[in-house]
Design goal:
Elements (H helix, E strand, L loop, with lengths): L1 H127 L1
Amino acid sequence: MDAFHAVAAVAGLAVGFAVAYMLVAQSKKSKASIEAARILAEATAASEKTISQSRADAAKVKEDAEKQVREERNELRQYENRLTKKEDVIDKRADDLQRREQSVDGRSKNVDRKESEIAAKERDINKIV
């Protein structure tokens, strides 16, 4: 029976080694699975953080651009208002100048008429004298 026990012992050892090997392999596989899940969770968290930060950055860029557009529009409105005021001043000056020209023309015609009257009266006086 010693041979039987020896064979049984060897077979038991072989089965024990096989079971131990399978348990170690299963443990390694389980650890690898856990590590993979952890890495995946970290990567997911990092990507979500990056996406969130990118959205925040994009919102800031958009807000800054909109603010700049508002400021530029405001500057353009102010510039247009200044131009409109200058145009109004120029139009007023042109109207004043036109009125002055008309007044000068009227006075000039009046002076010409009076000169003609004086010349006619001088002729009449010269005829009488």
